[in-house]
Structure formats: structure tokens, C-alpha cells
Design a protein that fits this description.
With 319 residues, this protein is mainly alpha-helical. The chain has 15 helices and two strands. Strands 1-2 form a two-stranded parallel ribbon. Helix 10 runs antiparallel to helix 11, helix 10 crosses helix 15 and helix 11 runs antiparallel to helix 12. The longest helix is centred in the last third of the chain and has 31 residues. The chain starts with a helix and ends with a helix.
């Protein structure tokens, strides 16, 4: 059931991609903003309550529909699952940015590539060269694919089914929108629980995605980079995804210069700064070719996930 739900949703999305500004997502953004305005007074416990209300606002209706679908029959369950997966997956949400950036760089149009990257990532891209544009595009693609595809896959496979998929996507959105860079101290306290909650919700999916990148890419380099360089990122999940993905493709990801304070916590004691600065990740600098490598890695990882989902579905049928 889960395999066909994901397969049909992927096929539908290929034929008719769900726009990022669709009414469902717009409603979620509006509700999250309203809840934040109503509850945010700079206290951590208010953030916990707001997060719980937002999660329940989406998971309770899905749970009710899921219960009704089970009562109706297997076809109703399949239809509901396909609808939920279609709405929670984002395999094609931002692919037009990545494809357009790849095309612009292939044509030597760095200005257009920088403009597209800035629109996609909402960061200042002025002055970036082609290598830096390619690197950031690769990093954004890997992180987006994990959170919009593979994380949804994992929670769809749990006993929660569509409820888990909805919970994951809402939790990911809240962790991102309530912890935007440059937030005030009041908002930092409010969004702290959303960030911690998503860390644990995403703990297993992140490692499964990294393992998938290793299996379908250069296994030894992916595992080596994961073990030795993931800590260079302040966000552990991002570090695992990018280090394993970069190692799998033989590409160095992350900022070209790291400082000790960003790599090791300040309470870790004396740091051997020489080793930190000279021990560089394996691989080449990101280039235009890295974009094509990323497409191949993501598709191979997707096929691996689908194969595992099929095996699990067959095992459940036989059981």
C-alpha cells in the first residue's frame, strides 16, 4: 500500500508539480504566522504550546480522515495516502531553480545563475563566482531533497502513515520559519522548542539519507567524510547530509574556510587549530559538473528508497 501510494504520488507530481505557493501551503503559512502573533511573548513555554497546537491542527484532521478511510476500504486508504504524499512531497517544488541554475552556468551566464540562486535561497549572491554558486546550489538541493522527500518517506513508512508524513512536514516548516537567521531574542526563545522537536523527529531520517548517499555513491569517501567532517557545521543534521553527500560525489561542500569556534564548542577545551585548518575534506571544488552529479546522486538515492519501500511492502503482504 505504501509503495503504491508513494509511486502514484511521484508520478502525479512529475505530470503536475505542486507549486510552492499552493493554497494548502499558503494556509499553513498564514496559520503559523497567526499562532506566532497570538502566543509569542518571548517565553519558551509559549513556543511549546504554539508548536503543539500547530501540529494538532494538521495531524488531527488527517487522523480522522485516515480512520474513516480504513472503515470504507483499501481503495479509500490508497486515495488518502496518495493525496497526503503528493501534498507533503516536494520533489519538484524547487527543481526549476536548480535546473535553471545548471542551464545558466552551462551557458556561462553567471549573472542569471546568481540571480536565480538568490531568489531560491534568499541570500545575497552578489560577487559569487561560478564555483561558489554551484556549491551552494548543490548544498541547497541535497538539504531540500532530504527534507521534502526522504524524510517524508521515512515517516510514511512508520505505523503513523500519512499522519507521520504530515507531522514531519509541519515540524520541518515550524523549525525553519520560527528560527530564521537574524531573529530577535524574543523570537529565538519562542522558536527554540520547534528546532529541538524537529531535531529528534529528523534524527533517524537524516542518517538514513546519509547512508543512502553512501550506498549509491562513493561509499568509503562518504562514510569517511561523515565521520570526520560532519561536525564542521553548526547544524548537525545539515553537516551529516552535506558531508556524506559531498563525499559520495567526491565534492568538497561547506564554506571554504572554517574557524575553530564554528567547528568545536567553546567548552570543549583547547583546540589544535593547526589540525583543523590543514585537514581538508576529500574531493574537488564544486563546479558546474557537480550539479549533474547531484542530479544523479539524488535519483539513485530515490530509486534505492523505492526499492526498500517495495521490499518492506512485500514483507508486510506476506506477513
Amino acid at each position: 500500500m505504501t509503495f503504491f501510494s508513494i509511486l502514484f504520488a511521484l508520478l502525479i507530481e512529475q505530470l503536475k508539480p505542486l507549486r510552492a505557493d499552493n493554497p494548502v501551503y499558503a494556509g499553513a503559512r498564514a496559520l503559523a504566522a497567526q499562532i506566532e502573533r497570538s502566543f509569542n511573548a518571548g517565553q519558551a513555554h509559549q513556543g511549546r504550546l504554539a508548536w503543539l497546537l500547530m501540529i494538532l491542527a494538521f495531524t488531527v484532521p488527517v487522523a480522522l480522515l485516515y480512520w474513516i478511510a480504513i472503515k470504507i476500504g483499501i481503495l479509500a486508504v490508497l486515495i488518502l495516502n496518495v493525496l497526503v504524499v503528493y501534498l507533503t512531497l516536494g520533489f519538484r517544488h524547487y527543481s526549476h531553480f536548480f535546473t535553471s541554475i545548471q542551464l545558466a552556468l552551462n551557458n556561462g551566464d553567471e549573472a542569471t545563475a546568481r540571480s536565480l540562486l538568490g531568489e531560491w535561497t534568499r541570500r545575497d549572491t552578489a560577487g559569487m563566482d561560478a564555483s561558489e554558486v554551484a556549491r551552494i546550489a548543490v548544498e541547497t538541493a541535497l538539504i531540500t531533497t532530504h527534507r521534502n522527500v526522504f524524510g517524508v518517506f521515512f515517516w510514511m513508512l512508520t505505523p503513523l502513515g500519512p499522519i507521520g508524513a504530515v507531522m514531519y512536514r509541519v515540524a520541518e516548516y515550524l523549525a525553519r520559519i520560527w528560527n530564521e537567521p537574524g531573529a530577535t531574542a524574543e523570537r529565538e526563545a519562542f522558536g527554540r522548542f520547534a528546532s529541538k522537536a524537529f531535531y529528534w523527529i529528523d534524527w533517524i531520517p537524516v542518517r538514513l539519507t546519509a547512508a543512502a548517499f553512501a550506498v549509491v555513491g562513493n561509499f568509503e569517501d562518504a562514510i569517511y567524510a561523515w565521520r570526520n567532517f560532519a561536525a564542521r557545521w553548526q547544524d548537525e543534521a545539515i553537516g551529516i547530509i552535506l558531508s556524506s553527500g559531498g563525499g559520495a560525489m567526491g565534492i568538497r561542500l561547506g564554506a571554504p574556510a572554517e574557524v575553530a569556534a564554528d567547528i568545536i564548542p567553546s567548552d570543549a577545551g583547547i583546540v589544535d587549530s593547526i589540525n583543523i585548518e590543514t585537514e581538508a575534506p576529500l574531493g574537488e571544488e564544486a563546479s558546474v559538473r557537480a550539479l549533474q552529479s547531484t542530479v544523479g546522486l539524488v535519483w539513485r538515492a530515490l530509486l534505492l528508497w523505492m526499492f526498500l519501500v517495495l521490499l518492506l511492502s512485500i514483507a508486510s503482504w506476506l506477513g
